[in-house]
């Protein structure tokens, strides 16, 4: 039954589990429990790998004393660290590629859903939670990094963190870097394939613009690389949903040159200091200026001198020296009134630490800290802006920020290299024509359900207020800022119509090619999540 109708079997099982949970009855024999999945899975893995010794070290049943600490280690949003959060029946922690291959084969034959987790930073936690019975394929042990400075490349397994990548490059060279995200604990597995970005976005584009090769385990358990997967799938894995096509094992990437000396600064203004003028000018300058310059803008409602106001911060990386930067901004962005005293000249690795909120001078070893089992409560959303927001518009937005009191906005300038890469060169579509990307951000520490509801309502309102200022048809969104509010499929149903709703927002017109590739490589939709790429309807 499981073999001939995997999906039917699965929904049949999930009905049992839902009933069991809702009615607090004892779990029936038919519903998958950690007991009913654990032993068959173990047996299947042993059959597949031919090694009982290996397998006995990589499967955690719910009854295992380490289950909870393994599960929690890479929970990165405390909203999904509750007793009520759905838990995996078992957790598999592969130590080598063959364990991943065996897990895919066994999950398919047993008819159980897998969720793939690398660094666990998915904002909606969908790498480690699910609405139907599931197991976690937890990739944290596959974290090898090999840096080859002669070739200017690096081989990186998905369980590595961004901090480890930056550190290993720095160990070998002070004039090489990699353009990826800001937070050192973010995992390579989720981040890179979705088009991760950081403070070198305007000079070097996205992570996916530097991928030379990818290893992936497909739905048949085959280990493929660029050559054996073909250019269609290789295209899809650069910006399409990584978890819709298979399990990524590693990326081989091209490193980029960085100067020995870079410059960082942070300047803050309140509304009373004409911060609005600053934001008006920022929109004219930040997406168009020298592409070595990335000026992020943060807007927070705060109290200053007893007054509710908005604080605007300009946080910057310049791939060059302070003198050049000051004269450039004096000319192009005079309202900033930047002086050399505002700037810090430092090495690229120190700029990485500084952007990640460590003080300049911190030892790069700090980047290796995985900070297991710690998280805030958070919600994030995204938008793209294609036309400058008028002064009146900004003033209205400030009013709303102050009224809501809590969510903040981050403007990340595009332009530069992002304008040079065609929207269909990779599956990531948000290129030329976008002035900046907005991140909506709210973070809290009160674990109560009321707080959750309150902050959720506030960030949704802010997102709704912003409608007139952002992209339309589709209202685009950034896949790495996962947001289930923009649409989901009924998990397991593979509805094309539902998939199109969020799919067009994340991928614009590239969605249609992604659907074709998905249908070709995983026609039964084994690799799925709440926002995965659907397959073509069978009738079409
Ligand atoms: C504190 C914080 C800071 C962040 N900063 C940035 C930033 O500066 N720039 C930026 O671009 N983004 C940033 N992000 C977003 C981040 O890039 C994404 O959440 C990213 O997907 C996280 O990758 P992960 O491996 O840690 O997450 P996971 O939760 O493990 O995975 C995310 C998604 O990818 C899938 N996936 C993971 N591994 C694999 C694999 N091996 N094969 C197939 N599918 C896989 C998962 O199933 C899930 O759907 C940040 C997030 C957080 C929480
Ligand atoms: C494992 O292999 C044995 C012998 O080939 C077979 O009898 C058994 O059914 C297999 N078990 C699973 C779970 O595949
Ligand atoms: C828990 O699972 C791990 C991984 O399979 C294993 O090494 C360990 O022996 C198990 N612990 C117990 C108490 O069963
Ligand atoms: C920038 O430098 C000037 C002096 O040159 C100083 O008055 C101002 O406070 C500095 N701003 C910040 C944000 O450090
Ligand atoms: C704000 O702008 C006005 C008009 O341009 C100017 O007169 C005033 O000095 C500015 N205030 C500050 C704090 O810069
Ligand atoms: C989860 O909650 C426990 C307390 O119940 C806490 O000790 C742990 O740090 C939390 N972990 C995360 C990732 O939120
Ligand atoms: C959130 O809580 C604050 C403080 O209790 C309250 O003033 C506000 O109205 C609440 N907002 C929402 C959207 O629930």
Task: Give a written overview of the molecule.
The protein is of the alpha+beta class and 540 residues long. It folds into 3 domains: 9-138, Uridine Diphospho-n-acetylenolpyruvylglucosamine Reductase, domain 2, CATH 3.30.43.10; 145-257, Uridine Diphospho-n-acetylenolpyruvylglucosamine Reductase, domain 3 (2-Layer Sandwich); 262-335 and 376-481, Vanillyl-alcohol Oxidase, Chain A, domain 3 (3-Layer(aba) Sandwich). 33% of the residues lie in helices and 20% in strands. The protein contains 18 helices and 18 strands. It has helices spanning 6-23, 34-49, 52-55, 67-73, 97-110, 162-172, 188-191, 201-204, 226-229, 231-236, 275-285, 322-332, 348-355, 391-404, 417-420, 449-465, 496-507, 510-521; strands at 59-61, 90-92, 113-117, 134-138, 145-148, 153-157, 176-177, 211-217, 223-224, 247-254, 256-257, 262-270, 293-304, 307-318, 344-346, 377-385, 408-413, 436-444. Strands 15-12-14-13-17-18-16 form a 7-stranded antiparallel sheet. A hairpin with a 4-residue loop joins strand 5 (145-148) and strand 6. Helix 2 packs across helix 5 (97-110) and helix 14 (391-404) runs antiparallel to helix 16. It is globular, with a radius of gyration of 24 Å. The protein starts with 5 loop residues before the first helix and ends in a 19-residue tail after the last helix. Mean pLDDT is 94; it is low at 1-29. One 2-acetamido-2-deoxy-beta-D-glucopyranose binds next to strand 12.
């Amino acid at each position: 039954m499981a073999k001939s109708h995997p999906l039917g079997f699965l929904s049949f099982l999930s009905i049992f589990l839902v009933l069991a949970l809702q009615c607090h009855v004892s779990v029936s024999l038919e519903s998958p429990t950690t007991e009913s999945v654990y032993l068959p899975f173990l047996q299947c893995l042993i059959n597949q790998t031919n090694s009982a010794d290996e397998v006995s070290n990589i499967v955690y049943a719910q009854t295992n004393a380490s289950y909870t600490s393994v599960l929690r280690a890479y929970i990165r949003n405390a909203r999904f660290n509750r007793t009520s959060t759905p838990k995996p029946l078992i957790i598999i922690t592969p130590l080598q590629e063959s364990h991943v291959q065996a897990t895919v084969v066994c999950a398919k034959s047993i008819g159980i859903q897998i969720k793939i987790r690398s660094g666990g930073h998915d904002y909606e936690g969908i790498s480690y939670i699910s609405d139907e019975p599931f197991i976690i394929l937890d990739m944290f042990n596959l974290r090898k990094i090999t840096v080859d400075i002669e070739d200017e490349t690096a081989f990186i397994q998905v369980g590595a963190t961004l901090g480890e990548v930056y550190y290993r490059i720095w160990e070998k060279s002070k004039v090489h870097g990699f353009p990826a995200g800001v937070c050192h604990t973010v995992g390579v597995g989720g981040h890179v394939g979705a088009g991760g970005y950081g403070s070198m976005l305007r000079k070097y584009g996205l992570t996916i613009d530097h991928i030379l090769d990818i290893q992936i385990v497909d739905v048949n358990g085959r280990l493929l690389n660029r050559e054996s997967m073909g250019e269609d799938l290789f295209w899809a894995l650069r910006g399409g949903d990584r978890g819709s096509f298979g399990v990524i094992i590693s990326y081989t990437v091209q490193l980029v040159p960085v100067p020995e000396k870079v410059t960082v600064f942070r300047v803050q203004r309140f509304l009373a200091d004409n911060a609005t003028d600053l934001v008006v000018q920022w929109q004219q300058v930040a997406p168009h200026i020298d592409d070595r310059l990335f000026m992020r803008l943060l807007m927070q409602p705060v109290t200053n001198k007893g007054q509710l106001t908005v604080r605007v911060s300009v946080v910057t990386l310049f791939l060059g020296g302070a003198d050049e930067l000051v004269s450039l901004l004096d000319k192009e962005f005079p309202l900033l009134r930047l002086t050399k005293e505002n700037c810090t000249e430092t090495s690229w690795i120190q700029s990485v630490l500084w952007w990640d909120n460590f003080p300049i001078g911190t030892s790069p070893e700090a980047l290796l800290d995985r900070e297991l089992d710690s998280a805030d409560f958070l919600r994030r959303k995204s938008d793209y802006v294609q036309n400058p927001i008028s002064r009146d518009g900004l003033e209205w937005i400030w009013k709303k920020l102050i009224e809501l009191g809590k969510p903040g906005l981050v403007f990340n300038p595009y332009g530069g290299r992002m304008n040079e890469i065609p929207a269909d060169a990779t599956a990531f579509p948000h290129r030329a024509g976008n002035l900046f990307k907005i991140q909506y951000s709210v973070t809290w520490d009160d674990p109560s359900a009321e707080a959750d509801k309150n902050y959720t309502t506030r960030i949704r309102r802010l997102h709704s207020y912003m409608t007139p200022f952002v992209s339309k048809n589709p209202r685009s969104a950034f896949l790495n800022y996962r947001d289930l509010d923009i649409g989901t499929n009924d998990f397991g149903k593979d509805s094309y119509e539902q998939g199109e709703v969020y799919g067009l927002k994340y991928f614009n017109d590239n969605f249609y090619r992604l659907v074709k590739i998905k249908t070709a490589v995983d026609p039964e939709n084994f690799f799925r999540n709440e926002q995965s790429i659907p397959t073509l309807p069978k009738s079409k």
